[in-house]
From TrEMBL:
<keyword id="KW-1003">Cell membrane</keyword>
<keyword id="KW-0472">Membrane</keyword>
<dbReference type="Pfam" id="PF00528">
    <property type="entry name" value="BPD_transp_1"/>
</dbReference>
<feature type="transmembrane region" description="Helical">
    <location>
        <begin position="66"/>
        <end position="87"/>
    </location>
</feature>
<comment type="similarity">
    <text>Belongs to the binding-protein-dependent transport system permease family. CysTW subfamily.</text>
</comment>
<keyword id="KW-1133">Transmembrane helix</keyword>
<dbReference type="InterPro" id="IPR035906">
    <property type="entry name" value="MetI-like_sf"/>
</dbReference>
<dbReference type="InterPro" id="IPR005672">
    <property type="entry name" value="Phosphate_PstA"/>
</dbReference>
<keyword id="KW-0813">Transport</keyword>
<protein>
    <recommendedName>
        <fullName>Phosphate transport system permease protein PstA</fullName>
    </recommendedName>
</protein>
<keyword id="KW-0812">Transmembrane</keyword>
<feature type="transmembrane region" description="Helical">
    <location>
        <begin position="12"/>
        <end position="33"/>
    </location>
</feature>
<feature type="transmembrane region" description="Helical">
    <location>
        <begin position="99"/>
        <end position="123"/>
    </location>
</feature>
<dbReference type="InterPro" id="IPR000515">
    <property type="entry name" value="MetI-like"/>
</dbReference>
<feature type="domain" description="ABC transmembrane type-1">
    <location>
        <begin position="62"/>
        <end position="280"/>
    </location>
</feature>
<dbReference type="GO" id="GO:0005886">
    <property type="term" value="C:plasma membrane"/>
</dbReference>
<dbReference type="GO" id="GO:0005315">
    <property type="term" value="F:phosphate transmembrane transporter activity"/>
</dbReference>
């Protein structure tokens, strides 16, 4: 009887703690959305930002955020896939493998501002890329690579060993088994990890202040020269993202409607991050159902 009372008490405490956390998070989300949504309009989402006059938008910053996200994923996904496959399928147990995993753990715990300073010293100064999209994308790759590598490795490790044995029994080589059997089976977890990492990239600010820059030059949509600073597809131009724009508006406050712009930008950023997180769950569950139904 005493054990049952203790169990009920412990369960009640855990539910209470979980409820408090949910209420805090929900209150924070509702506060940001309620404060910012009234300031969101089509003009706000598409027009150019203003430095000294009221009525500016976030069109260029929003585009820069998505463009930087795409460039970062193009760089980081192949590297994380290769590293995850090696650690899961080829790496032998030993000091070297343990050292690599330890380094991944250390890198995954680095503050984003430290990664930003590293990116500034290496990509902006040493490689002479300057404040640019490529500098920001490389810094974000360093920032997200450990987490994405662990996601790929864990997803591949969760595939049952009988799947590998079945592929080898059919005469497939080890590499063909990984490509045609193991990776498709682990795809829901991999895709979910990539989408969650996309939300993390989209909302990052500290690492980009020192690498991608704090200005958003006007874009010439008729200019498709990849090396031009006004080209929308150039990776060598400065690109203030939405998260950096929020920080800049709050820190400088040179525009009369800084509070409204900051609130609207924060709401847009939060909406997209929520979309990334919810779509990650949906995509993962959909892929899992398709794979299980196909079996």
């Amino acid at each position: 009887m005493h054990a049952k009372k203790v169990d009920k008490l412990a369960t009640g405490i855990l539910y209470t703690i979980a409820g408090i956390i949910v209420v805090i998070l929900a209150s924070l989300i509702l506060f940001i959305l309620g404060r910012g949504i009234p300031h969101i309009s089509w003009s706000f989402l598409t027009s150019q930002s203003s430095s000294y006059q009221a009525g500016g938008g976030i069109g260029i910053q929003l585009y820069n955020s998505f463009f930087l996200l795409v460039v970062t994923l193009i760089i980081s996904v192949p590297i994380s896939m290769g590293a995850g496959i090696y650690l899961s399928e080829y790496a032998k147990k030993g000091r070297l493998t343990n050292f690599v995993r330890t380094c991944i753990e250390i890198l995954s715990s680095l503050p984003s501002v430290v990664v930003g300073l590293f990116g500034y010293l290496i990509f902006v100064v040493q490689f002479q890329y300057g404040f640019s999209i490529i500098s920001g994308a490389l810094a974000l790759t360093v920032f997200n690579l450990p987490q994405m590598t662990r996601t790929v490795e864990d997803s591949l490790r969760n595939v049952h060993h009988t799947q590998r044995e079945a592929g080898l029994a059919l005469g497939l080589s080890r590499w063909e088994t990984i490509i045609h059997v193991v990776i498709p089976e682990a795809l829901p977890g991999i895709v979910t990890g990539i989408v969650l990492a996309s939300g993390r990239i989209f909302g990052e600010a500290a690492a980009l202040i020192y690498t991608a820059g704090q200005s958003a030059p006007a874009l010439d949509w008729s200019n498709w020269n990849i090396f031009s600073v006004t080209s929308p597809i150039s990776i060598f131009r400065q690109a203030e993202t939405l998260a950096v724009h929020i920080w800049k508006v709050n820190s400088e406050g040179t525009i009369p409607d800084a509070v409204q712009v900051s609130a609207g930008s924060a709401a847009v950023l939060l909406i997209f991050i929520l979309i990334f997180n919810l779509s990650a769950r949906y995509i993962g569950q959909t892929l899992y159902k398709k794979l299980t139904s196909a079996e």
